[in-house]
Specification:
The structure is a single chain. By secondary structure, this protein is an alpha/beta fold. It has helices at 6-13, 20-25, 36-39, 65-75, 85-90, 92-100, 120-138, 154-162, 183-193, 214-230; strands spanning 51-59, 80-83, 104-107, 144-145, 166-167, 172-173, 199-203, 234-236, 249-250, 254-255. One of its GO terms (biological process) is carbohydrate metabolic process.
């Protein structure tokens, strides 16, 4: 069990709003992988102790996503893909193929933007719009929501709740969006935070990150899955993970687990 570092107290402090704007942006601290699993296990995607939820963000991408689907087929693994709505409607064939191969879809927003000026009506419409797009394309209604950049504001949490989605972030990531990411660095970064019941975040597209960085995630994927299995952990989508329900931001922007 990781110890709580001194910087945790500084991190936790930003959950307490200093004004109206902070009531929206304060919950963004939930993206930090250190304190999140300790304070907010529901948001961190904490599930069954012998299972790892494998998740991908930022697709669909007609260039890179098919390679991830092929790799997962070879590994005999399924995953949850959090899709950006405006990209899903541009690349419907990739969306349908993802589902056809046995994976599930989550909502990653209509656009991949930072919520510097959150407006609930807009957030609610964009989340609902993405839900409709996924359902129209696949016949399946998504169950999960992950905000772009992992920045969870009160407004976006409420929007997800209104749409009937459960918000799930992650407990381990590969930092695979950077220009200097390599398969080795991605694997090592995931392994550093890998625990039974965890949720792993990787990216199947470089649309919002360093060009070509998806190759690092793809190259690391077999080793990441192998590390999980050698540790006696099964790998699969969130629907097999049963993460604990998460209560959301309390009034004033303070997150309550």
């Amino acid at each position: 069990m990781p110890t709580v570092p001194g910087r945790f107290l500084r991190t936790a402090a930003v959950l307490l709003p200093a004004g109206a704007a902070a009531a929206h942006i304060g919950p963004a601290a939930t993206w930090l992988p250190g304190p999140r699993p300790l304070l907010f296990p529901g948001f961190a995607g904490t599930g069954g102790r012998r299972h790892i939820a494998l998740t991908f963000d930022d697709g669909p991408d007609p260039v890179s996503t098919p390679d991830f689907l092929d790799a997962l087929d070879e590994l005999g693994a399924r995953a949850t893909f959090f899709v950006v709505g405006e990209r899903a409607v541009r690349h419907p064939a990739v969306v349908r193929e993802t589902v056809r191969r046995g994976h599930e879809l989550g909502v990653h927003g209509w656009r991949h933007d930072r919520p510097w000026r959150p407006v609930f009506a807009r957030d609610a419409e964009e989340v609902a719009r993405t839900v409709r797009a996924v359902h129209d394309l696949t016949g399946h209604r998504p169950r999960w929501y992950r905000p772009p950049y992992g920045i969870l504001t009160t407004s976006r949490w409420r929007a997800a709740r209104r749409a009937g989605l459960r918000t799930v972030l992650w407990s381990a990531w590969g930092r695979d969006w950077t220009a200097d990411a390599t398969p080795e660095s991605v694997r090592a970064r995931v392994a550093a935070d890998l625990r039974g019941g965890g949720t792993v975040l990787l990216h199947d597209s470089d649309r919002y990150s360093a060009p070509g960085c998806w190759h690092a995630a793809l190259g690391a994927l077999p080793a990441v899955v192998r590390d999980c299995r050698e540790a006696g952990l099964s790998v699969g989508p969130l629907s097999e993970h049963a993460p604990a329900p998460a209560r959301g931001p309390a009034p004033g922007g303070v997150l309550a687990e």
